[in-house]
Design goal:
- This protein has helices spanning about 1-20, 90-100, 115-120, 125-140, 160-175, 195, 230-245, 270-275, 295-310, 330-335, and strands at about 45-50, 70-75, 105-110, 145-150, 180-185, 210, 250-255, 260, 265-270, 285, 290, 310-315.
- The protein is α/β, with parallel strands linked by helices and about 350 residues long.
- The radius of gyration is 28 Å and the shape is globular.
């Protein structure tokens, strides 16, 4: 009887073991963490552009602490979606290194002739190649984002709709790798096909818009030679945010770091400082020619306007500003209460 019981028990154990091996149930695989969804940075921005033709040594290292984003200008596309070689790659590397060392977010600004953008954006295959190349450039160079400086899409040539397509597709690709997309745009104070060329449908795709509120000689009848008056800044933000419905957190107010004369010739703000001009004012005479610019007080006033009604300020361009105590970027930071030490 004991033998029969032992045999029955052995058979039962073998059967159970066999069922465990063949019941089709396996341990679940180690879960793979899903990619984190893109989250836009809605903090207040202080943006500056650095053109390839400037010497990085011309900007004091301490100035980098006064900005949040730096764009190297420019990377140029071709009509087929390929990219031209970057100008001054060694300067690009030096500027990006300085920016990162100071906690600044880095990006490349893509620009070129309007005709190239119009043709490229009209072709689905060219758009696809362009986006692949721009994304590849941003990833290879460990950039935080990309700025599109297409001046300008227009309703007159049919490029407005293609601009929406291009920015949507580019945004989707960049966001997959947690990189932002910004755009440099018209101030919007002049009615017409250029202003209408930036359709509201593009607002959701772009993380922030660098509004170029300058080069407007004659717009302000109270200051006809001032190319970037305070009134122009107010009108521009009122249009984009109030009239067109651009989200406040995406609007960045552009401030020029240069002045212009009645003949539309430019001079860097640092030149006015070097000439011992009173930069609390918005005008100065150099070699018998009067220039109008944004001095310290107007820059502070615009910074306050941006803080109250928008979500950032932008300077064209970084090198133009003075490196010392009369810097307008420093003045803007002081008005904003930002620590740059």
């Amino acid at each position: 009887m004991k033998k029969i019981y032992f045999l029955f028990t052995a058979i039962l154990v073998i059967g159970i073991s066999s069922c465990k091996k063949n019941d089709g149930i396996t341990d679940p695989p180690t879960p793979v963490e899903p990619p984190k969804p893109y989250v836009a940075d809605n903090s207040f921005k202080v943006v500056a552009y650095f053109p390839s033709y400037r010497d990085p040594n011309g900007v004091a290292d301490a100035k980098f602490k006064m900005i949040t984003h730096l764009f190297y200008a420019f990377l140029n596309p071709n009509t087929d979606g390929s990219l031209a070689n970057l100008e001054q790659p060694s300067r690009f590397a030096a500027v990006m290194q300085k920016a990162r060392a100071n906690g600044v977010k880095t990006g490349i600004s893509v620009s070129g002739t309007r005709s190239i953008f119009v043709e490229m954006a009209a072709s689905a295959s060219a758009r696809k190649l362009f986006i692949k190349n721009v994304l590849g450039f941003a990833r290879t160079n460990n950039l935080d984002g990309v700025d599109m400086d297409w001046e300008y899409p227009s309703t007159a040539d049919g490029s407005a709709d293609n601009y929406v397509l291009l920015m949507k597709e580019l945004s989707d690709s960049l966001h997959k790798y947690n990189k932002f997309l910004s755009a440099a745009i018209t101030p919007g104070v002049y009615a017409g096909s250029i202003r209408d060329g930036l359709k509201s449908e593009v607002f959701p795709s772009v993380d922030f818009f660098n509004i170029m509120v300058y080069d407007g000689i004659g717009w302000d009848k109270d200051e006809p030679i001032q190319h970037a008056s305070y009134n122009m800044a107010v009108a521009s933000l009122n249009y984009w945010i109030g009239t067109r419905g651009m989200p406040k957190q995406k609007a960045v107010l552009g401030i020029p770091a240069y002045g212009k004369n009645a003949a539309n010739a430019s001079k860097a703000y640092r030149d006015f400082v070097a000439a011992n001009a009173d930069v609390n004012l918005d005008y100065a005479t150099i070699d018998g020619v009067q220039y109008y610019f944004n001095g310290i007080l107007t820059t502070k006033k615009k910074a306050k306007l941006a803080k109250e009604t928008a979500n950032g300020i932008m300077f064209w361009e970084f090198y133009h500003d003075d490196n010392g105590s009369k810097s307008i970027i420093r003045a803007a930071n002081d008005e904003l209460g930002r620590n740059y030490n």
